[in-house]
Amino acid sequence: MSIKLVSFKLCPFVHRAATLLQHNQSAYEISYIDLENKPDWFLEISPLGKVPVLCVNGDPLFESIAILEYLDETASHSLHPADPFRKARNRAFVGIIDSLFGANYRLSRAADEAATRAVVEDIQKVFLLLEKEQPGPFFNGAELAFLDVVAAPFFYRLELIRDRLPGIYAPTPAVERWSTNLAQLEAVKAGVVGDFSDLYQNYLAKNQAWISTNTLAAG
Ligand SMILES: N[C@@H](CCC(=O)N[C@@H](CS)C(=O)NCC(=O)O)C(=O)O
To answer: Are 147 and 129 in contact (CB under 8 A)?
Structure first.
C-alpha cells in the first residue's frame, strides 16, 4: 500500500494525520506545498483547496478527521474506546476540540493585548469543559486515544508560547497535565518538521501577532 500525505509545514490539521501515522509506525511519504501558490495537481485532488490530503494508492482523501478515521480503522489497534457509548462521547468532543484550533488561528492574528486576552478567555472556557472529562494522563486514561491525536497539535503549539501566557492553565490543572503529556509524545514531535518551533515563531511575527513579542499579564 502506498500512503502519501500532502502537507503544509505549519498546518495543525496535517499534524493530526502525521501524528497518527507516526504513532502507528506506518510507512508514508510526505510532500509540502505552498498554500499561497497551490499547484494545479493539488487543486484537482483537494475539493476545498485545503491540506491535509492523504493519497492511498493514488486515491485522495481529505479532511483531517476522515483521514484519522481511515488510518485508525486500518491500523492493527484502534485508538477509539471499545465501548460504543464512550466512543460516541469521545467523538462528540471533536467539535469542541476543533474550536480550540479556531482560537489558535485567531491568537496568531490578534494584533493587540485586548484581542489576545479575548482569545485566551475563549480558550479557557473550552478548557473548563475539558477539565471535567479526563482522568489523565490521556483523555480516556492510561492509553493514548483518538481524541488525544485530534487535540495534540493545538497543545503542541500552545506549549511553544506558554511562557507568554502565564496563568492560562491556572483554573484547569488537569488540562495543563494533558497539554504537557501530549506535547511531549514522540509521535507528536515527529509529526512536524525539525525546525517547526522557529517556523512557528516566524509565522507569528509575520502576522504581527501581539503575542509574538509580548507576554500577557496573568488575568
Ligand atoms: N477542516 C479541515 C481544515 C483544513 C485547513 O483549514 N487547512 C488549511 C491549512 S492549516 C488550508 O489548507 N488552508 C488553505 C486555504 O484555505 O486556502 C481539516 O480538518 O482538514
So the answer is: no
Do both 92 and 177 map to the same domain? Answer: yes
Q: Which residue minimizes the CA distance to atom 2 of ligand 1?
A: 63
- Cell numbers of 110, please? 490578534
Q: Whose CA is nearest to atom 8 of ligand 1?
A: 50
55 is catalytic: no
Count Cβ atoms below 10 Å from residue 134 Cβ, excluding itself: 20
- The alpha carbon of 142 and the centre of ligand 1 are apart by a number of angstroms equal to 31
Catalytic residue among 5, 6, 11, 182: 11
Are residues 59 and 89 located together in one domain of the fold? no
pLDDT tens digits along 74-120? 999 999 999 999 999 999 999 999 999 999 999 999 999 999 999 99
CA geometry: angle 105, 102, 84, nearest 5 deg:
145
Distance 196 CA to ligand 1 centre (A): 18
Per residue in 139-195, pLDDT (tens digit) is 999 999 999 999 999 999 999 999 999 999 999 999 999 999 999 999 999 999 999
Residues 167/209/195/124 CA torsion (nearest 10 deg): 30
Terminal Cα-to-Cα distance of the chain (whole angstroms): 51
Range of the structural domain that residue 189 is part of: 84-212
Residue 15, phi then psi, degrees to nearest 5: -60, -35
